[in-house]
Amino acid sequence: MGKGVIYILFGVSGSGKTTIGKKLAKDFNIPFFDADDFHPESNIKKMSDGFPLNDSDREPWLQKLANEINDWNTKRGAVLACSALKQKYRETLKSIDKEYIKWILLDGSFDLIANRMEKRKNHFFKKEMLLSQFETLEKSEEGIIINIDKSSDEIVNEITSKLNTKKSQLGLVGLGVMGKSLAKNLLSKNFTLSVYNRQVDGYEVDIAKNFVKQQPDSHNVLGFDDLKSFVDSIERPRTIILMVNAGKPVDFVIDALIPFLSEDDCIVDGGNSHYKSTFERSNRLADKGFHFLGVGISGGEEGALKGPSIMPGGSKEAYDRSGDFLEAIAARDKANNPCCTYIGPEGSGHYVKMVHNGIEYAEMQLLAETYHILRFYGKKTPDQIAAIFNIWRNNGLDSYLLEITTDILLKKEGDDFLIDKILDKAGQKGTGGWSTNAALEVGMPLSTISESVMARNISGIKSKRVEASEIYQLKTSSISSDDTVFIENLEKAFRAASIINHHIGFELLKEASNEYKWKLNLSEIARIWTNGCIIRGDLMEQIWELFLSNNDTSLLLFSDIVTIMKPCVSSLSEIVSVGLKAGFSLPVLSAATNYFLAYTSAQTSANMIQAQRDYFGAHTYQRVDSSLDEYFHTNWKH
Ligand code: 6PG
Predict the structure, then answer these.
(1) Which pLDDT value is given to residue 164?
(2) Which residue among 3, 353, 380, 492 is the active-site one?
(3) Does pLDDT of 355 surpass 60?
(4) Which of 43-52, 83-92, 570-579 has the highest mean pLDDT?
(5) Taken in order 463, 467, 470, 473, is the CA torsion positive or negative?
(6) Range of weakest confidence among 25-39, 57-71, 149-163
(7) How far apart, in whole angstroms, are the C-alpha atoms of residue 434 and residue 325?
(8) Which of 57, 207, 254, 294 is a plausible cystine mate for 278, CB 3.0–4.6 Å?
(9) How big is the chain by its Cα radius of gyration, in Å?
(10) Which atom of ligand 1 is nearest to the CA of 430?
(11) Span from the CA of 485 to the centroid of ligand 1 (angstroms)
């Protein structure tokens, strides 16, 4: 159970502690207690005999209250009305961490209170007693002071606003690199925000509180390491964004949040979650009356901060309710519209993000192969390669990935290029592989993307590669560094392979849309990928325009693309054959070539596959000279 806050209303008798305390407790939906109900028998007797209590009488009473406060703190919290006139009485009550006690002094002039008490029906008012209370009262440095010269509702409103119990518009869980950047982005767009980060001793300490301190507009953000207070601080129906690692942590946080949520609250998962998990989570939460949006967010740390590309999937109702903020923080396309659009039903947002990452994997590998062959076959230095890439960027090939690759090539450490010092072992969190599995599930080719995943996998077996290279001692060959024809061919091959890779990604989206009945809008997806995300670039701008003219055509079949591809395809085959012959592994360039040659072949080798299947398994085959409804089997041995 979370830790509850104890609101202690203190001040002289007649200041309204009970009336205000009860109203406050009702508003906060926590119990109200009157300190007078906790006096020991001996004190009650003394008071009813007309004797005032002294400090030693008060000691066991205050101690008992301190124990109660400790107990309420472990539950939902409480409002306590207690005179607590002297500082030393208040010190005794501080049995818990001070951040969980909110001191509220109800302050008013002697005349005002005396007047009110005199007017109370059936109330026997002793002026001397009130005077002695005023003499005893020591005003406190801590907490808030509320002047009671107004109505009880006004007093309650002033207390809630002074206590900063104004609710935030949004909540965000997880202040890792992406979570922090997204939170700053939200604050820059004037959203009020509550942030939560778990507390792990010696590892994640006061992350949320420190984040709040570092914000220039810290009055717009509240920090918590206690989940209940965090949830309570958000306007209902709540929107809570999860920026935690994909996988088990998402379920862990959802399960921890559920007990504190109310009907119609919406959880927004902004991590790279698997689309099937998103689908399951949506159903699980819908059963409990909560909404769920699975949102792909691309653009890394900088994108999250300045404007990412955002791919939300879930019920339209959830998007209409909670999606506003996503559009506000997203990057803008060239017409200044948000790079965020409602993608489709549960799971579709994360599916689209997964395919984005698949395209990203293959583009990265394509650039890596292009750099590698320029470096070791073309004998260029990293800065010369950067210069070549900069020329390509001006030839309609500009992209975020080409830009950062150019920067990487120019980065030096002392006299050396940093790229030469980086171990050739690629990491991955899985989204490329997920795309491959997803393509297999709907029977689509994903050649460039799956090869880029395999390239990372083979890079991972470094020691085996070193051992094999020593055994085989294969030599690579190279050309003279002033071979301009090779560079021209490579540019064309790169252009063609990149188009093929994008075509493959969009074909998978189209097929998934049919299969899962998502009605994906390809031009909108291309549009939100024109800015903020990792695969933005000149080509994506063109793809957006093309799909806008026709959402159903395959990318490689648009006449504008055919015009670009035709002069490039022979260069693609040329580069792959020259590169392989010279001893270089070119998985994505090869995959792109093979895909393209197969895709543009009316006749492939699959007739032989069908014959083989029929031979050993009687799987039957269709014939070119017969109706496609008819299936044949041959007894191949006779
Ligand atoms: C993005 C990136 C981002 C992340 C990848 C990296 O669109 O902003 O794709 O999501 O960098 O998950 O994935 P790997 O670690 O698998 O390369």
Answers:
(1) 67
(2) 353
(3) yes
(4) 570-579
(5) negative
(6) 149-163
(7) 29
(8) 294
(9) 34
(10) 16
(11) 35
* 22, burial (CB in 10 Å: exposed 0-12, middle 13-18, buried 19+): middle
In this structure, what DSSP letter does residue 51 have?
P
Query: Catalytic residue at 360?
Result: yes
Q: Is 363 in the pocket of ligand 1 (CB under 6 A)?
A: no
| Cα 226 to Cα 534: distance, rounded to the nearest angstrom | 35
* Distance between CA atoms of residues 243 and 239, nearest Å: 13
- Residues 199-216 have a mean pLDDT of 90
- Residue-level pLDDT at 165: 66
Biggest distance spanned by C-alpha atoms of the chain: 122
Per the model's pLDDT, the better-predicted residue between 14 and 372 turns out to be 372
81: β partners: 9, 34
Question: Binning pLDDT at 50, 70 and 90, where does residue 1 land?
Answer: very low
Domain 6-161 matches domain 166-346 at the CATH topology level:
yes
Rounded to the nearest angstrom, the distance between the alpha carbon of 351 and the centre of ligand 1 is 14
Give Cα separations from 542 to 226, 523, 526, 539, 546 (angstroms). 48, 10, 9, 5, 6
Residue to substitute in 297, 360, 525, 528 for testing ligand 1 pocket (most ligand atoms within 8 angstroms of CB):
360
- Fold of the 605-638 domain: 1.20.5
- Give the rounded percent of residues in the chain with a pLDDT score beyond 70: 98
Q: Which CATH number fits domain 6-161: 3.40.50.2000, 3.40.50.2300, 3.10.50.40, 3.40.50.300?
A: 3.40.50.300
Q: Which CATH superfamily includes the segment(s) 166-346?
A: NAD(P)-binding Rossmann-like Domain (3.40.50.720)
Residue 426 in contact with ligand 1 by CB distance below 6 A: no
φ, ψ at 251 (rounded to 5°): -65, -35
Tokens 């008490």 locate to 117
> CB under 8 Å to 398, separation ≥6 — which residues?
392, 537, 538
- 323 three-state secondary structure: coil
The domains of the chain are located at 6-161, 166-346, 353-593, 605-638
Q: What is the pTM of this model?
A: 0.78
| Beta-carbon count within 10 A of 541 CB | 19
CATH 1.10.1040.10 fits 353-593, yes or no: yes
State the average pLDDT over residues 202-215: 91
**Nearest to 567, CA basis, from 476, 488, 452:** 488
Would you state the pLDDT for residue 158? 84
